[in-house]
Write a structure and sequence with these properties.
The chain is an all-beta fold. The chain is built from no helices and twelve strands. It is 0% helix and 57% strand. The protein starts with a strand and ends with a strand.
């Protein structure tokens, strides 16, 4: 698929996956690659290229009520940014783990692959209410390398739902409070 913007003379080319070779399932809604290009002085220049990789696992067995299910999860994103001079920087993100609900629980942002000390790792925890079929984010914790090569101070966000204390939801999963870490033990709170 190609989308063209006549004002900026830019266009986006999108390639989609077709069929998974091992399972034979339709993946046509999943993007495989996106390219953003534009014309500068009459010459086509590629600015960004993003590649997306997924893992597919078999889920529930088929029975008289349901077809077989598959779990499709993002495994890796790769983004290349090009300058007008032909140099390229490559950024990637690895999606490391998911919970039984299919929620992403850990990812690693590798930053610029030519810079070893700009990686960040994020852990996400959830509150899951099976009876109400609700899954909401409880905490997002991110640590990045600092210039000394150690994991630096963490950033953290905490989420509260239905005016309940941390770790609980009151049946609806409505966000009512958010806290962002502002210091070693200090958080800035926002109510909704």
């Amino acid at each position: 698929k190609k989308t063209i913007n006549d004002e900026t003379l830019s266009f986006v080319k999108t390639d989609y996956y077709q069929e998974h070779p091992d399972f034979g399932i339709d993946l046509r809604r999943l993007i495989k690659k996106e390219e953003l290009s534009c014309y500068i002085n009459g010459e086509k220049k590629l600015f960004t290229q993003s590649n997306y990789h997924y893992t597919v696992r078999e889920g529930r067995e088929a029975d008289e009520h349901f077809h077989r299910t598959y779990r499709i999860k993002k495994a890796k994103d790769i983004k290349r940014e090009y300058s007008g001079t032909g140099t390229c920087k490559t950024f990637s993100t690895d999606y490391l783990s998911y919970d039984d609900w299919g929620n992403l629980t850990k990812k690693r942002d590798n930053g610029d692959e030519s810079t070893p000390l700009d990686d960040c790792e994020t852990t996400i925890t959830y509150i899951n209410d099976e009876a109400a079929h609700i899954s909401v984010i409880q905490n997002i914790h991110t640590e990045c390398y600092n210039p000394a090569g150690d994991w630096g101070p963490a950033t953290e966000e905490r989420f509260y739902y239905d005016n309940q204390p941390a770790g609980y939801i009151g049946g609806k999963g409505t966000l009512t409070r958010e806290e962002i870490k502002a210091g070693e033990t200090t958080y800035i709170a926002t109510g909704y």
